[in-house]
Amino acid sequence: MNLATRKYNFIQELTTIDESLLEKLEIILKTSKKDWFDDLSSEEKKEIEIGLKQAENDEFISHETVMNRFAKRH
After folding, report:
1. For residue range 31-42, what is the model confidence (pLDDT) as tens digits?
2. Which helix (H) or strand (E) holds 66?
3. CB 26 within 8 A of CB 32
4. 47 contacts 37 by C-beta, under 8 angstroms
5. pLDDT, tens digit, 9 for 90 and up, residues 2-46
6. Which helix (H) or strand (E) holds 41?
7. How many of the other CB atoms lie within 10 Å of CB of 29?
8. 2, 14, 30, 33: which has the highest count of C-beta atoms within 10 A?
9. pTM score, two decimals?
């Protein structure tokens, strides 16, 4: 049985399950997805955290402001 057929059969089975089983399947799907953040180096993660803290403290320049600055130079 190929993958497409297996997926189709699985979808057919989903139409008959109760809410309890559906919730369990949703948890499995959510926990099995790989998060891109996990693949970052510790230095990259630190930089992102710094940027988020700066944004929380309104220590940033809007995209529009940056684009206007560069547009004036050309």
Report:
1. 888 888 889 999
2. helix 63-73
3. no
4. no
5. 999 999 999 999 999 999 999 999 999 888 888 888 899 999 999
6. none
7. 9
8. 14
9. 0.44
